[in-house]
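Repro:
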Amino acid sequence: MAGLLFGLTLTVLSATLDVTAANAAEPAGAVTVAPVGTATKPLAQRSVHSGLARSRVSVAVPSHLVEVAVAWVSADGRAGGQSATVTGGGLTWRLAGRANASAGDAEAWYATTVGVPFTVTAVAAQPGLGIQLAVSTYTGASGIGAVTSVSGESGAPSAGLTPQANGSIVAAVGMDWDWAILRTPAPGNTIDRQDTDSDQDTYWEQHLDARSQSGTAVTIADTAPTADEWNLVAIEVLSANPPPTCKTAADTVEGKKAAVFLTLNVSWCYTPAGVVSSNATYSYTPARNASYYYAQLNKNVYATGEVGFGSSVSYSYFNLDLGTTDGEILVLNALIDTRGQLSFNQNTGG
């Protein structure tokens, strides 16, 4: 039988195409896309431990893994004057970002843990004032990427950031010097911790629900309050095994006519996280009578979760015209909503 050029691959994450030919003189081949390296653990925020005190605060972290730890510090203080230092656990703590142009201070520090419990201490430069320390630990992380530090005299707290990699977690720490009012997170944001004190200060940490796409700007934000001054530091926690970039495309698959029935099952990816609806359509060039061909696609694919594998998309190709050997082109179009991207690309098997 004539060889078949018939394949489909995804540009993101590993995928395997299983090609089977029923009633064929020769079995169709299988095409395998080399898998991306797998991290020991996927990127995830594992725990948050916090404390609130004056001048100096310590937090014990019962870690037993090698992780990236982020110390979120927010403190009361005069505009431009407050800052903090972070030490503890025999770890090397590095300052990722500081925002203190408005009254108060927000800072993010990070270190790599060594697999044993540790205690972190934050000390404010201006003594006698409130200071909050929250420590988050991240499994499957490789370090810190993009950082943004923003201060505002009023308006809802907001910080834009352009991630350096795919699959990162974007999180932030904030401080409101004016009033003890809990934040209302913007859609797609989750508050991890909020504290207030008797001095009418508010301290909080939050993160974006969706994982990052490299180079695609994101905004971590709240919707209320809007009348207070604030400081906000947002950082990107990098994945040790980031997925490749998803792209949207409409590509073609070529085939020679033969008495063959092929079914291809393809794992696909979506990004950012959330429910993604994919409607795949197909057409033939040149157009042929339907009796010559049979094709079907799983037209509604739904998936939830973070960047990763989703449901499979499959289609079948059946041709009864044994007397013709001209090439046919099957055009696949992936129609993706704004929350996700799906890509079809060519490969060969046969």
